[in-house]
Write a structure and sequence with these properties.
alpha/beta, 6 helices, 6 strands, about 20% strand
């Protein structure tokens, strides 16, 4: 059974300032760097190594991965964060209420030059499936983003299951999945700071 460790990037300046990040970028904070290094120590202490590593093309994801491991990795646009259009860099207070039937923003951001939830979900699923379908990809680490990871989770778990099984989905949270026959099964959440 193949394993995917899908991780949300470390804390950034925009996270700390409660700003919408999306397709824009901001640097890791000192805390973010330390947290990523702690994840690296966690993997090392458990002799947990990866056949391959991937990161979003965005700086915060690449910097997170480089603080976890020195192994070579590939950057993929398919792992990028949800594009929030003109809301990029603005206060998180401007985020709309989510669609209560889908527990998402739906296609709200499309009218403002961004992506819909289903576009993000399809992109993430296509990218992660393509990664896991490659030979010699038995255990993979992929660093992505909060919104993108959440939409990927919603592809494979109901919102009720996410609420019950995914606890404390903060920066550096790791979502472990198994993969077979073009399908992902959520196994558990790993929050290194709580261990």
């Amino acid at each position: 059974m193949k394993e995917l460790y899908l991780m949300r990037h470390s804390q950034t300046l925009f996270n700390k300032l409660h700003r919408i990040q999306g397709a824009s970028d901001s640097p890791l904070t000192t805390q973010g760097i330390e947290d990523a290094q702690e994840v690296g120590r966690y993997f090392k202490q458990r002799n947990l190594s990866f056949d391959h590593a991937y990161a979003s093309t965005q700086e915060r994801a690449c910097d997170t991965l480089e603080n976890i491991t020195k192994q070579p990795y590939k950057r993929l646009k398919g792992l990028k964060e949800w594009n929030f259009g003109v809301f990029e860099g603005q206060s998180e207070q401007l985020n709309p209420k989510d669609d209560s039937t889908r527990h998402s923003y739906g296609d709200f951001f499309v009218q403002y030059g961004g992506e819909s939830d289903l576009q993000v979900q399809a992109r993430m699923n296509q990218t992660l499936t393509a990664i896991m379908e490659q030979p010699d990809h038995n255990r993979v680490l992929a660093v992505s983003h909060g919104g993108a990871c959440f939409m990927f989770l919603q592809k494979w778990l109901s919102f009720e299951e996410i609420q019950r099984r995914v606890t404390d989905f903060h920066n550096c949270c790791i979502l472990k999945f198994t993969y077979s026959k073009k399908g992902f099964e959520f196994i558990k959440t790993i929050n290194v700071k709580k261990l």
